[in-house]
Amino acid sequence: xxxxxxxxxxxxxxxxxxxxxxxxxxxxxxxxxxxGGVYWFPGVVESRTRDTITIAYDDGTRETRPANQVRYYDxxxxxxxxxxxxxxxEWYGGRISAMDSGGSVISIAYDDGDREQTTTAMCRSx
Length: 126
Description:
The protein is α+β, with helices and mostly antiparallel strands. The chain has one helix at residues 2-22, and strands at 29-33, 40-48, 52-57, 62-66, 70-72, 80-84, 91-99, 105-110, 115-119, 123-124.
């Protein structure tokens, strides 16, 4: 009986942990691999089928990705990101040093020592 309870508890915990990783629904803030590449960009789920998710990215673009190329938004203070300095075209590496309460306005401490307040629309992660 004790072994049965242990297995049941283990299975319950496994389901609890894995469910949020694939349960993105309309309105969830997510990170998705733009065009299936190596970078993860923030956006909001617009719609979902069984195997695909349509994302409205924070930068204004939209696309539909396979569900395995979408994960919950997990950036926080200390997260490593690359951002477009002053809204330019080049990407620079750094870490998030602060976030507003909504999470979309972030401060970046760049690797070269520069600092900037920007939005998630200007950033990506690996």
